[in-house]
Automatic annotation (TrEMBL):
Keywords for this protein: Cell membrane, Membrane, Transmembrane, Transmembrane helix, Transport
Membrane topology annotation: Multi-pass membrane protein
InterPro entries associated with the record: Na/Glc_symporter_sf, Na/solute_symporter, Na/solute_symporter_CS, Sodium:Solute_Symporter
Organism: Oribacterium sinus F0268
Listed Pfam families: SSF
A Gene Ontology BP annotation from the UniProt entry: carboxylic acid transport
GO molecular function, one term: transmembrane transporter activity
Name of the protein: Transporter, SSS family
CDD domains per UniProt: SLC5sbd
PROSITE patterns xref list: NA_SOLUT_SYMP_1, NA_SOLUT_SYMP_3
GO CC, one annotated term: plasma membrane
Length: 493
C-alpha cells in the first residue's frame, strides 16, 4: 500500500499540483472574503444578502460531505448496492420539505438556532440548546476531517495523521478569515467540483470494468435493487432525520438566516434539492463498479483491507484514471468534506460567541469582540476535531448519523412549532430538549437500539416521539405567561 502511494505520487505529480492549487484557491477565497466583513452580522450570516443560487450552492455543499462521497461509495460496494443512493436522495426530499418552512426561518432574523430559543422561550432554553448543539458540531467536524485526510494521504503518500493536520489547518484558516462569506463562496466553487469531479470518474471506471453490461454481470442481482439496503421505514427514517437536523443544525439553517429575503430562502432550498437528486447516484454507481472490479479480479480488496473500505474510491481513481481526471476527482471529494467541516466550524463558533459569551459572559460585548470570540472558538474546535480525527477512525456515516440525531431529536418541535403555535412554553421546550437527548443517547450507547422490547434501527424516531410528548404535555400544563410567536427584541449588530 505504501509503495503504491509513493509510486503514484512520483508518476502523477500533476494530480498533486491540481489539488495544491485547489487548496491555495480556498485560502485565497478566505482572504478575499475577509475584506468584505464589516460587522458580526456579516461574519455569521453573510450580511443576510444571499440570493437563490448562492443559497443552493452552499446548502448542497454543506450537506454533501464525507458520508455522501466516500461513505456512499463504501455502502454501494458492501451490500447496499444501488439503494445506497437513498442516503443522498432523502437529503433532497428533506430540502423540498424545508422549502415550505424556509420563509419562516428567514423572517425570524436571528443568527443562530439557540438565539431563536432564547428570544422565544427565555435564556435557560437558549443555554440548554446551545450546549446540545455545540458538542455534536465537534464530532461532525472530526468526521469530515477524517474523510478529507483519507483522500489526501492516499494521493500524496503522506501519513494519515499528517494529512489530518494539513486539512485541519487549511479549513480552519480560510473559515476564520471570512466567516459565512468565505464559507459560502468556497461552497459555491466546491459543489461544482464535487459533482463534476465524481461524474468525470464514472466513464473511466466503467471502461476499466468493460462497460455497463460487464458491471451488471459481475455484481449480485440484489445490488441493482433500489430497495435492497433500505425498506420504506428506513427511507422514512432518513427523511425524518434530515428534516429534523437540517431544520435545527446551525451549519444548515444559517443559510436560511443569510438569505436575501423569504423568497430567496425558499428558492435556494428547491435548487439545493435538485443538486442532491442529480448527485445521488454518482457515488453509488462508483461503488457498484468497484464491487464488479473486485469480483472480476481486476481490483483486489486486499489493496485497502489494512486501512478500511473507505479507501476504495481513491484507489479506484489511482488505478483507472488519467492524472487530470484523478486530480479533479480528488479535489471534488476533498471539496465535499471541506465544505461540510468549514460550516460545522463556523456553526460552533457562532453558537458559543453569540449565545454563551455575549449573553452570559460579557453581555455588553461589542460586535468586534463577539466576532473575535467566534474566530477563537473556531480555532479551538478545529484543534479538538483534529485530535479526534487523529485517533478515531469510526465509519464516517456512523459519526454523522449519531451527531445528526443527537441534536435534532430534542430541539425540532420547539423550533419548528414555535413559529406557529402560540401556546408553546419554556417548560415544554426544556422537557423536549431533555427527553429527546436522553432517549437518543440511551438508544445509541446503552440499549443498542432496544426500547420496551422493540428494536429501533434509527434512534431519531423514538427520540422525536419522546420530545414531542414532553413538549406538548409541559406546554399545556405549564403554559407561557403571554401567548404569541413573537421574539424578544435584540440588537442585530
Amino acid at each position: 500500500m505504501e509503495k503504491q502511494k509513493g509510486d503514484f505520487m512520483g508518476a502523477n505529480w500533476i494530480v498533486c499540483l491540481v489539488v495544491v492549487i485547489y487548496l491555495l484557491a480556498m485560502l485565497f477565497i478566505g482572504w478575499y472574503s475577509s475584506t468584505k466583513i464589516t460587522s458580526n452580522t456579516d461574519f455569521m450570516v453573510a450580511g443576510r444578502r444571499l440570493g437563490p443560487l448562492l443559497m443552493a450552492g452552499t446548502l448542497a455543499a454543506t450537506e454533501i460531505g464525507g458520508g455522501s462521497s466516500l461513505g456512499v461509495v463504501q455502502n454501494g460496494m458492501s451490500g447496499y448496492g444501488l439503494s445506497a443512493a437513498w442516503y443522498i436522495i432523502t437529503m433532497g426530499i428533506a430540502f423540498v420539505i424545508l422549502s415550505f418552512m424556509a420563509p419562516k426561518f428567514r423572517a425570524a432574523t436571528v443568527k443562530t438556532v439557540p438565539e431563536y430559543f432564547r428570544r422565544r422561550y427565555g435564556k435557560s432554553s437558549g443555554l440548554v440548546t446551545a450546549i446540545i448543539m455545540l458538542l455534536p458540531l465537534i464530532g461532525l467536524t472530526a468526521g469530515q476531517f477524517i474523510a478529507s485526510s483519507v483522500i489526501l494521504s492516499t494521493m500524496l503518500g503522506l501519513s494519515y495523521k499528517l494529512s489530518v493536520i494539513i486539512v485541519a489547518v487549511v479549513v480552519t484558516v480560510y473559515s476564520i478569515m471570512g466567516g459565512l462569506w468565505s464559507v459560502t463562496l468556497t461552497d459555491f466553487v466546491q459543489v461544482f467540483l464535487i459533482i463534476i469531479g465524481m461524474m468525470a470518474a464514472v466513464p473511466f471506471a466503467l471502461s476499466h470494468a468493460g462497460g455497463v453490461e460487464a458491471v451488471i454481470q459481475n455484481v449480485p442481482k440484489e445490488s441493482l435493487n433500489l430497495f435492497a439496503g433500505y425498506d420504506f421505514f428506513g427511507i422514512l427514517s432518513l427523511v425524518i432525520m434530515y428534516v429534523g437536523t437540517f431544520s435545527v443544525g446551525q451549519e444548515a439553517v444559517s443559510r436560511f438566516y443569510a438569505a436575501r429575503d423569504e423568497k430567496a430562502a425558499k428558492q435556494g432550498a428547491w435548487l439545493a434539492a435538485l443538486l442532491n437528486f442529480i448527485y445521488a447516484f454518482i457515488p453509488t454507481v462508483l461503488g457498484l463498479i468497484v464491487l464488479a472490479l473486485i469480483n472480476m479480479g481486476k481490483f483486489s480488496a486486499d489493496e485497502f483491507a489494512s486501512v478500511g473500505a473507505r479507501y476504495a474510491l481513491p484507489i479506484l481513481a489511482i488505478r483507472t484514471m488519467p492524472a487530470i481526471i484523478c486530480g479533479l476527482l480528488f479535489s471534488g471529494v476533498i471539496s465535499a468534506t471541506m465544505s461540510s467541516s468549514d460550516s460545522d466550524l463556523l456553526g460552533a463558533g457562532s453558537i458559543f460567541a453569540n449565545d454563551i459569551f455575549k449573553i452570559f459572559l460579557k453581555p455588553n460585548a461589542s460586535s468586534k469582540e463577539v466576532m473575535n470570540v467566534t474566530k477563537i472558538t473556531m480555532v479551538l474546535v478545529g484543534i479538538a476535531s483534529m485530535f479526534i480525527a487523529l485517533f478515531n477512525t469510526q465509519s464516517i456515516v456512523s459519526i454523522l448519523m449519531f451527531c445528526f440525531t443527537l441534536r435534532a431529536a430534542g430541539s425540532f418541535f420547539p423550533y419548528v412549532l414555535g413559529h406557529f403555535w402560540k401556546k408553546a412554553s419554556t417548560a415544554g421546550t426544556i422537557a423536549s430538549l431533555v427527553l429527546g437527548t436522553i432517549t437518543v443517547v440511551y438508544l445509541e450507547h446503552v440499549s443498542k437500539g432496544m426500547l420496551f422490547g422493540i428494536h429501533f434501527s434509527q434512534a431519531i424516531i423514538p427520540g422525536l416521539v419522546a420530545a414531542f410528548f414532553g413538549f406538548m404535555v409541559f406546554s399545556i400544563l405549564m403554559p407561557p405567561a403571554k401567548e404569541g410567536t413573537e421574539l424578544a427584541e435584540e440588537a442585530d449588530d
